Records
---
Amino acid sequence: MIIAEQKPLDFVIETLDEHKNVLVVGCRSCVAVCLAGGEKEAGILKESLHLHSDLTGKGWNIEEITLERACEKEWVREMASAMEGKDAVVSLACGVGAQVIHEMYPSVLMVPGVNTVSMGAPDEQGIYMEKCAGCGDCVLHLTGGICPVARCSKSLMNGPCGGSQKGKCEIDPDTPCGWDLIYRSLKEQGRLDLMDVLIPPKNWRLSRSGGPRKTVRKEAVQTPEEKRIGGASQ
Amino acid sequence: MRIIGFVCRDSALPAVEHAASKEDPYPSFITLVEMPCTGRVDVVHILRAFREGADAVFVAGCLEGNCKYQYGNIEARKRVTLTKSLLQAAGLEPERLEMFNLASNQGWRFPEIVQEMVSRVERLGPNPIGKVKT
């Protein structure tokens, strides 16, 4: 899932500036699981902004809504009536959701209420670890199910490096060495021979180095005929 | 003066009943909100109390380690800490909010808690929200 963390309230207050009619938008997907932008957090942010407005006499009109998934236009349409008369949105959805909302309501100020941090998973309640870097060329079959791109600090494809100390990375004693994890996983699987397989230089054009990535699943794309008959979603 | 207390029904509330009597009730400017556990106290509850004009808010739960629901009072303490930072950012003194822990047989603690919050309000003055709103 996508991991995000809330921006400070001060930032939201300053960024809203003179905008008075505000919709706080939460998302029930990833950001709800990582406790950054679900229904609960949207309610708290709304109440906090209300308190600030009441204390300062700013007269902000603040409402909140939490979408099922802010990254899909079908769900974002549900906030249409709540958007009436609004001049700013504070998005607690991830950067993806915030941009989809903006695409649908381009004339309204978009204030990001969270920083989108990584693709990861909860290690335990309240602690989230990055697991995937979205490199576009997965090698988990060669690395014992552990991603060297996301979990090795240097994204080494053939590790570990000399900075691996007793299973920890030299950047931080709390950070496990990704290649130590890979070694242990391969040992568990009886596949230590894979440590000798040289992974060739990676094609980073499939990652961010190739610019914004467009993924097309041909079977799912509606033909012009289908669009004409069914009225394709925008 | 208006002080709101979110109190655990298994510890703080019995303590209040110990401390107060018909002859000597707790002050009328205090409103107690009975909670099944302070773990049920939400950040929004506290913020709303201040928005409604409370000069101070306190949360009173069991002694740590004594929560009937294991760690509701620890959850409450974390939420109080979070809410203090939100109050600061919103423009209200975080000292207007506090978390207390007491046992049901520590009735003597309740007047101390009240006195602590009254002192804070006297030092900070009334919640400015009333002035702005009117």
Note: The two ends of chain A are 25 Å apart (CA to CA).
---
Amino acid sequence: MRYLPKSPAERQEMLSAVGAKTIEELFHSIPEKYRLKKPLNLPAAMSEHEVVQYFSERAKENSDGYTSFLGAGVYNHLRSVITDTILQRGEFLTSYTPYQAEITQGTLQAIFEFQTLMCQLTGQEVANASMYDGSTATTEAVLMAERLTGRGRVLVARSVQPEYREVLRTYAKNSGLHVEEFGYTPAGTVDTKALSGLLKDDVCAVVVQSPNFFGVIETLGPLAESAHAHGALLVAAIAEGVSLGAVKPPSEADIVAMEAQSFGLAPSYGGPYAGVVASKDRFVRQMPGRLAGQTVDQEGRRGFVLTLATREQHIRREKATSNICTNQALCALAATVHLTLLGKEGLREMAEQNIAKAQFALGELEKIPGVKRAFSGPFFNEFTVEFPKSVRLVNAELLQEKIIGPFVLGTTYPELTKNALVCVTETTTREQIERLAAGVRKALAA
Amino acid sequence: MNEKIKKATRHTNQNEGLIFEKSSPGKRALDWPPLDVPKVDPTKLLGEHHRTSGVEGFPEVSEIEVLRHFTRLSTWNYAIDLGMYPLGSCTMKYNPRVNEFVARLNGIATEHPYQPQELSQGCLKILRLLEKCLLEITGMDAVTLQPAAGAQGELTGLLLIRAYLQKQGNARKTVLIPDSAHGTNPATAVIAGYEVQNIKSNADGQIDIEHLKEQVTDDVAALMLTNPSTLGIFEQRIPEIAEILHKKGALLYMDGANMNALTGVTRPGDLGVDVMHLNLHKTFSTPHGGGGPGAGPVAVKKILEPFLPIPVLVEREGGKFALDSQRKESIGRVKAFAGNFGVLVRALAYILAYGPGVRQATEDAVLNANYIRKGLEGVYDLPYTRPSMHEVVFSDVLQKKNGVNTMDIAKRLIDYGFHPYTTAFPLIVPGALMIEPTESESKEECDLFIDAMKAIAQEAAVTPEIVKTAPHTTRVKRLDEVGAARKPILRWKPEVKRSEAAD
């Protein structure tokens, strides 16, 4: 087998050296009745060509050739070929977690740069080396707030990505956390009155998302004040990181949980992505996940190491701030390379293109009789529209035009059955937007 | 330098500062297609929300500087592509490049998790085939591909156990964990809402059955067992252990990190395991990437199937696949979307390349470990003498006589051109050297490793200082970890006065 670097002769030599006649002897510590007598029933071994063929055929059975207007937590953005060029370097791709710092300075410095970029983006003071994704980052941020305040109640806005909320509930069930939700206003922003009603001195965290799931940008200052007035922390989740190129960062939040997928990671049917937890320096000892820190070596040279490891499972075991071990390092590297390529002006321009295209798309859709925008708050690259007809039926028609229509909000918000979440990015062309509008018009006229 | 060092030589290596230190206003690396819709004024639209200038401190560099920056950084790393990683329980095997190719295919990398399921049949078929293969390999009844890593798999597994026991009327309070376990085990148990009770290993490094009988009370939900153990030794009485637990209504969780010793040779499901996780970034060759991404699928016996996390892959009429989130008894969602799909693709590519011949990989892995064990027996102390499977654990007892410990030996191994083995773990072996070569190492590489370790043992006896102050040939020497933790600098800041930089 091409992945095994031994000739039959070498195997024999090594067996002799070990004092065994057959390889089976080396498995005698497994009780005989449990040793398999037949090969596993797996598909026959494939050559490299056949492996490529298998996946190429599967690739043809997906959405190739369709234009998509989906966002809802996963975003199509331009990626440079350079990102993959770097990621494919064996010294990054096939390297281990940087516990042995002297021979992993490449990884460690890249992590340090990632942490810096995340702080700059989010307006926070410290950021970790990654979590699995935005949903688990949000959950870990809440658990961090629980540790920091010693309280067990969490108030989550319904306008936070539905799957993020589901993941939080799964984790909360077993850590004694009590999760309650509060709603949104006709503007699409969080209902601060409802929040006030729920806020008491037993709350550890108020969780909001901005831009929220409906695409609307939240005003965090007053929310932070309300939370703080009751001794609670404000957790801000961000699913669309490119928004930070044009939208003020959530510096008022105590903890930020961001999904970094928008920064150079392909949608890849849901993963792998990279979550980030960013927060204030004074909370760092309660942060989950790895942290790379700057230091010096014995000869005074600058270098980087994993640090504050006493928070982590391999040192602290039961008392760790999180059980996370393997995180999403290569994905974080992709984000680092991507953001470095974009640079200060590039991210700003990308963000502005998103805004322009989304505004244009809204304009085109609003020209259609019966279609109007739901929610009035400012938005970035996603907005919610109301159709006079079932969104599902409209989308079914759009599929005929090879268009994957907007997200059906009714699937997770029973009160929003007529609403669709349209996402447009810098990758969406004017022609595609016009086709969407034409397709929607046709579907509604039918 | 030292003629005993055969695998590595010093070489001119590029310096490179932080990317922020190369930044200069006006430089850019990416250009844009021009806007094809009317420009808008963001301040008018966003009002007070508008971030009027770019992100402060963000780098401004050219394309070539970015490429050089990261390429230079990469040359400072050791990697599997360069040579063996003898890291115990990490299973640092070859990451096949065809896996990278297929994961990037148009139609694979490009798919949105919310696109219509009828336009995702390719993805769903991939998931289904991987599920079937993993079930065949593990001998279990059902599997979830959701968890993003081993630790998340462990959590999922414990939540499944909790849900099952809760349905019976009592979720119970305690999880038993051997003192040789990986740190994620106890950390996870706590997050799952359980108390941890340690189980001691006996003199053979196995679970002490008599103690186990005493410790398994009606309060115990499960035992988390790694098999082979972190000593590389097969837990021979596993079926008995399973029976003891089952008699008291408790379940057996197997940490599958060491599956590389078992694939194709035996199946955990046959041994009485109720639930287990796999590490696709270990046994199934997906790349470590400097610390992830990974994937930690969880395989279960039928009794736990109703509680699997959503979404669950189901087959509908006409052979169409779908992701089903309407599962009344499910523990819920553990991660957004459908798992680390890109990682799952790579693992399937690995399995398809091997087919039933995957047993050969296991055999070579065990052969390599035993060959190294034989080569180093007598040179290093072997605390547990039962047969080793895919990894072997020595201790630094002999070398400690001259004040040389496992960390020193590991650092000196770097000068010999290898990545260190796992130091100081498992905790039950003071001064542990945990070595797992994997099947990806040739006889030549194994011989080089044995020679290096022998040479270092010799140095420890005769010239211990060179070992205690290693490494000597790296870009940076031993780093001040105490200082790093005492005064953490966790990000670059323009105004911070930095100590003498490497460039």
Note: Chain B touches chain A through 200 residues (CB under 8 Å).
---
Amino acid sequence: MITFEAVTKRYPDGTVAVDALDLEVPAGKTVVLVGPSGCGKTTTLRMVNRLVEPTEGRILLDGRDIREQNPARLRRGIGYVIQQTGLFPHRTVEDNIATVPVLSGWPRAKARARARELLTLIGLDPALARRYPHQLSGGQQQRIGVARALAADPPVLLMDEPFSAVDPVVRGSLQDQLIGLQTELHKTVVLVTHDIEEAIKVGDLVALYRPHGTIAQFAPPERLLGDPVDDYVAGFVGFDRGIRRLSFFASAGLSLKTAPVLGAGATVARAQDTGEPWILVVNDGKARGWIPSDRLGDYPGDTPLRQVPADGVGHTFAVGTDSLRAALDAAVLSPAGEAVGVDAAGQVVGVATFDQLRAAIQAADAADTAEAAAARAAAAADNSKKQDAAPAEEAEEGAPHPAREASPVPDSHRGAQP
Amino acid sequence: MMWSWIPQNWSLIWNLTWENAKLGVLPALYGLVISLPLGIVAARWRWFYPPVLTVVNVLYAIPSLALFIALIPAFGLTDTTVIIALTVFSLCVILPNVVAGLRAVPAPIRQAATAMGYSALRRLVTVELPLAIPVIIAGLRVAVVSNISLASLGQLIGVSSLGYLFIDGLQRDFPTEIYVGLVLIIVLALVCDLILVGVRRALTPWEPRRERRERQERAVPARRLAA
């Protein structure tokens, strides 16, 4: 866990990069610092490994003031990844990755073996071990940068715009990889980005900075989207935050209807009996196409549906695993305006109309808002308890999200409650 | 051109070439040894560099012969006099390249090294200096080539070098000797330069070839004209 206590960084020319910052990065979580350039997010990050020293306040790593430790030794326990990779051009890939183990006194052979292990972990061919960085693509270099940061298995990982210099496709895969690594490794990650999409995608918690080194809101990404504390935050997360927030709601609660789903062998008369405006034709459980009900009238009642021309299905969503955003998107792109839900094997489970989607969204929203209110109340109770029982104790270990609502903004400024 | 003169004077020619090579290479190496600590300090503490550079440039402006003569009272008509003078000139060429090479290490690489937990000294020795090698060797090449040419002037104060062939050839009105001396100086300079190119390639197997050329063009300072 990394704790910032009233940390201020003021430069000799009077510029305040970080202003009385209180922030708690819970162990094993990914916290994303996001904000406009010059907002102090990178300064915040660099203070953790003492590349920048705070002017006031203190920073604790697992309860210990980082100034008590020798900077070089402190840094060997903190992985560091930067946008420009910072790979050593004169060292091979394996020696780059082995940097921190070698610095920590491992025998070179053992360090190189570890490097090869990491190449596999990050999904690169171990045959690249003997190449030099300039022989690799930007995306590969960035992966090597991540591998190097992980080499000595540090509990903390600092990432400064790690994916900003690569193209969007590679960026997406690097982000997915980070999320994947995190589910295995549970590092305490602090990641700086100016890209709110990236923050929302990879962060367990997002700290959104205001221009002069203060945090506007510190919350899980779905809360940032659903419950921005003010216009600044709402503006920063973007106009379509309502839709993007649906990414965090599972489609499990969505009710589906099965009446319009008919086999290819069913007759036109049968389809007309359903009274549905659109019929989804399935063959062996797979969606074949949509037929509008007015087209059915052109064919004799005993015609099998496979002989009636059908419109494309668009894309489907996996019921339960995909989010409501995917389901909504499937509905928007469907000619019928209805989303086709499938199971893990791709077999059609049912279809969802906009009305059903709306009901699911409202239910999810209500549940989420209630959870937020409960968390807020718990945080408030926790705070008052702390004030009673001075000196302040650490948040109880059992609390599921001790820092979720640790927003520096008073509750009264937050979004309206239902 | 009297070709038979060459085999007849083979041992003289060989000795002079060897002496000239020593006068070219040793001062460059001494210059490197002095430039490294000065350059490291100048790259680290920026205020230190401008005054040092001024001194170095003033020294560089002294005509070589004048410097030889100025050193004679202390060191006499010896190799030492020539070597000291050429070391000073080498320093003038190599020092700016050491500073440029160290300063050209990209900030993200330096920062990454610090963040990995390098001490300042270890970072300098294992990251910054290796990355500065191409630029430093570029300076060394200029120094060696210009020293080989300047060393011939040592003959004017009686220090043997290929310059002997020029003076002797002139005094005896015997052009063959002058041509031989000229060709040998050029060949010697080329050979030393090639050796240094080889050394650089051996020390920097990691360098992409394309960048190699660009970096040289950027870093080589103007050549000092002999005499």
Note: Chain B has ten helices and no strands.
---
Amino acid sequence: MSRILGIDLGTTTSCVAVLDDKGQPKTLAAADGERTTPSWIAWAANGQVTVGTRARRQAVTNASATVFGAKRLIGRKVNAEDVAQFAKLAPFRVVAAPNGDAWVRIHGQPISPQEAAAHLLRQLRSIAEAAIGEPVTRAVVTVPAYFDDAQRQATRDAGQIAGLDVVRILNEPTAAALAYGAHRVGSGRRIIAVFDLGGGTFDVSIMSVENGIFEVLATGGDSALGGEDWDRRMLERIVDEVFDQHRVDLTQVPMALSRLREACEAAKKALSVDRETLLQLPFLANDQHGAPINYERTVTRDQVEELTKDLLDRVTAPTVRALDDAGLTAAQIEEVLLVGGMTRWPAVQEIVEKIFGKKPSKGANPDEVVALGAAAYAGILGGEADDAALLDVTPHDIGIKVGDSGFSVMIARNSMLPVRARKLFATTSEDQKFVSIELYQGESSDVTKNRKLGQVVLDDLPPGPPGSVRVELVVTVDVESIVGITARELRTGKETSITVRPSGGLSQREIVEIINRRRNETSVASYLPTEGGNIVRVTTREQAAVKPPPPDEDK
Amino acid sequence: MFLKASSQPSLGTLVRIDLELPSATVIELQGTIAKHVTDPARGTGIEITLDALPTKTVWLIESALAAETKVRADTAGGAPPPPRPPTEPPEAVVRSDVAEAETDLVRALESEAESLRKLNPFLVLGVGYETTDGDVRAAFGELTKRYHPDRFARYQSTQLRQTAAEIFILIRDAYRKLADENSRNQVLATLKPAAPPKRPQTQPSAQTSQSIPRSKTPPPMPRISVPAAIPPKPPAIPAPPSLPASMPPPPAAAINPHDVPTNPSPKTAELAHTELAKAEHLAVPVAQPQVERKSGPIRRVTPAGGVERVQPVTAQMPPGPVKVDNDNADADALIDQGRLDDALAAYRAGSKKNPSDRALRAGVELVEGLKALVNRDRMEAAQRFEAALEHDPSNERAARELAEMRRQATNERKGLLSRLMGKKEPT
């Protein structure tokens, strides 16, 4: 049986890990020695795709065809507020797919974020294959705990496009805790909080770790808050300044935007350590008269903190709510674990300390810990590690629509998976012929603001006065977060059921089309050297992905 | 045998101790108070001289200990153990075989779920009624490692994973209900009225013996017996701790009549202690014996001076010892000869003549069970044997047959899993 990879598909950087021969998770380095890969994907004019550091390096000269932060778009609608904000300042174009999903337009060609992420996954796979010297077809991929069904499914679809069977989607903070707790077996029960502020998402999870059992008590977060928001605040400020001084709108100059973004990120990193830093951007753009704009100014940490105060405030509410959901007070948390690059920012550490009343601990390698946890979990699923188990929860309320817009919760958020809930309904009118039950996911009491998961219709009900016919509804969520609904009429036993196959926005046909297109592309591209992988092997595996081998050959 | 006691009834008082085996059998030990002891190290107490036990009773205690050892040794307690990578390269297994093995596993898990459904939360988790948050969590953790659907992630059968999920939900619900003391007390309150006065606890490790259905009534609270001839006021003579479910009975070993002759010599006392240590060791996994009581445990000093806590004695009149009818010897002989129908007729006739003799009624059930075994109806057989033990807890043969069936079930499942794993590993 081939090994299962653990992949952290991050907003800004990604990482791949696997269990070594001793059963310890370890991250895998690319040929250049790097253990993390920037989540950047670039398309050259000839269609060739580059990924990672190289994509990032060429971004300045090819800004409109270099995509980053695809994770912010995956499984999202283009009209979502945070997507629109992100799109406004992205050097590449974000467009609407026919179904309203956010896609990117590269060289005039619409490309789904799933496909972009698939390039990244493919790269990570070839890094892993080169490092361990054997083919890999399966992976555990992490997502923010706060991702909803569509975002999770879109991530799975990305795996499929990349020829990877995503055996499980794992929550990032849970993965981090798994990596963290794996070394501390047998030290009694500990309640920990994982505070994960990454490039694009924020998650907080309250967990108990005891004797190999990792139990998520509650989770919360904001799937659209991360380090890039800090960068963007600085960027917006500079764009405004330049417009005030020179009457030039930099958002229309992709190359300038791209340089600014790099500079802002670098400045933020510098300010995590120093109190002030110098921003220097010579020849940023030309002013109205064609004269070059040389941007230069000193930025202090205080200024940036002032600028991003509201962002910082946005971490408090989900954290407090998660504590509340877990039925714990901050004082009961024994350890706070920081994950994600943005937790290096001093103000973030301060607010964490303020919320929990204790100094958070920084893991040895916050950029790798999620991938390490994913690999450890892959070991559990593969049967290599049988002294650990992971008990995760549903991140959102699941319930049914009542009346016109009411939302009746059947499975509360933070319910341990797998979970099952039953509810009895009675007919409301004489000789009612059918009942229709719509299932939604979300926190709003107004059902229309939540995400619809699916609908069952139970018809041919036996006749009778109102209330005489009873229908039992059973909603289940399994360990893979797959939702099932069954409705059964109690007198006749007639039942109907569906399994909610969440849609990540791409149909199966579209996915196969992408795979086929990609295969044609690779046959052209195979003459070109690519990063960290062997093209010939890539091509053959692409074909395998379209037509999976019969299971018995899958050893 | 020494028992710590705050008051000391007069010498020669008859003492009766009920000993509950995990197999649901109650053994009644009888003895007399031999002397009053006041020892600075051990405190005040009494020395009890136990009457010799009939050999069949000794056998019952021993087999209960042996069965428990075996169950523990199987890690899983008879449940499908978490599949482990085999240490030796497994043989290649044909696909159809694998499908079949998975079907078998599904079936095993389904009956597992079925039997768990009938248990109260304490028995589902295999913890004692007087337990702690930590032990409930530990028991839940152990079961989680065994039954969490992730454990079955690598099998192809979705039904397998669904059934595992079913079981896990049952375990998790039990955990929820027992997670803290308040909710535990609520559960206890619902159990108490239903608990029949005498029927001993069922053995929770039977949650693992999938073929053995349980009685629908929730098992009674752990219960302590009662010195018969002791004054009406709750007596000060402590009995051995009543055993929480799934526990091998440490005190059984300690007072194993083998080791405790009328006049315990130092050597036998030592022996008894070794036995006790062994028994306690066995008790370590899933749940610890929960002998502690909020009302303040009485301490009992083991022969070697170790201190054990013992539940206080509750006042309750014990039923007299079950009469073991020697007239059944004929029917027993018929069973030994394999003439089951004749044996059944003999027991039936006896039972008609003497309807109040529970031993005879047990005999009827026993023979019915043996007949079912001949017909390979193990479900029926297990039910019959359990019924026999219900009528007559000292029915040795029924207890032995049940223990044997459990052993078989465990072994079968082990074979099943190794077949499954054989296919899952590269060859």
Note: Strands of chain B lie at 2-4, 14-20, 26-39, 43-50, 298-301, 307-310.
